[in-house]
Design goal:
Length: 249
């Protein structure tokens, strides 16, 4: 797939899945814009992409802060132009007993994972509506929207919220030709893949743990301009784990 005419904004792209997505889109010709609070890793990533002769930009942004988000879009307007693809990837996870989870911790998860996705989508869609651009949005959810381990209330709530937000925004924005989908990754190993154990792989129906490239392929499919019949959908990319019956013996 060729994305030479696309400009993609990826939140939380300094590390993990977001970093891999930025590299994948750049390899396919897209202009890549990343934002994160990790400035050092973010600028390293942009340098790596530019070394390949690709166009890339980094902006420092705290996605929990509505003013930061508004200022980011203003800077993009002034320095780069209008994006065509938005990937709401920024996220944090905290595994804490609900009896010990403070309100401030809960709000940090909600604002980072869920509220930021709505605000970024609102800013992007406003510009697309005004300029008649058929933009595409990907919300990075998780299989934890559908299945849980103990002490994951905040994370699960935000990921379930992202799936619901996806089909709600798809309905609201369809009149403007804007498509909204989500991806729910399972176990995606972003580093030291060769150090995984055999049992880590074989517990998946796919017989391997996921890689960032698996998520990138799903993103490419959902954001390719011609795939305009897919919207409001959530794609699970987890090697079959959510379909596997597990019995404890």
């Amino acid at each position: 797939m060729n994305f030479e005419k696309e400009t993609v904004l990826i939140t939380g792209a300094s590390n993990g899945i977001g970093r891999g997505l930025a590299l994948s889109y750049a390899d396919r010709g897209a202009t890549v814009i990343t934002c994160d609070i990790d400035e050092e890793r973010g600028r390293q990533l942009i340098g790596k992409i530019r070394e390949k002769g690709k166009e890339a930009f980094f902006f420092s942004c705290d996605v929990r802060n509505p003013d930061n988000i508004a200022n980011l879009f203003q800077r993009i307007d002034e320095q780069i132009g209008t994006i065509t693809i938005l990937i709401n990837n920024a996220g944090v996870s905290t595994f804490t007993s609900m009896f010990e989870l403070e309100v401030e911790d809960w709000e940090n998860i909600i604002h980072t994972n869920l509220r930021s996705a709505f605000l970024f989508s609102k800013h992007a869609s406003f510009r697309w509506k005004e300029k008649n651009i058929q933009g595409r949005i990907i919300n990075m959810a998780s299989t934890r929207a559908f299945m849980s381990e103990p002490d994951s209330e905040g994370y699960a709530a935000t990921k379930g919220g992202l799936v619901a937000l996806t089909h709600a925004m798809a309905a609201s924005l369809s009149q403007f030709g804007i498509r909204v989908n989500s991806i729910s990754p399972g176990w995606i190993q972003t580093n030291k893949y060769d150090q995984l154990r055999g049992i880590d792989h074989t517990q998946h129906l796919s017989n391997r743990v996921g890689k960032v490239e698996d998520i990138a392929k799903a993103c490419m499919y959902l954001t390719e301009a011609e795939n305009d019949f897919v919207t409001g959908e959530n794609i699970v990319v987890d090697g079959g784990m959510t379909r596997k019956m597990i019995y404890e013996h």
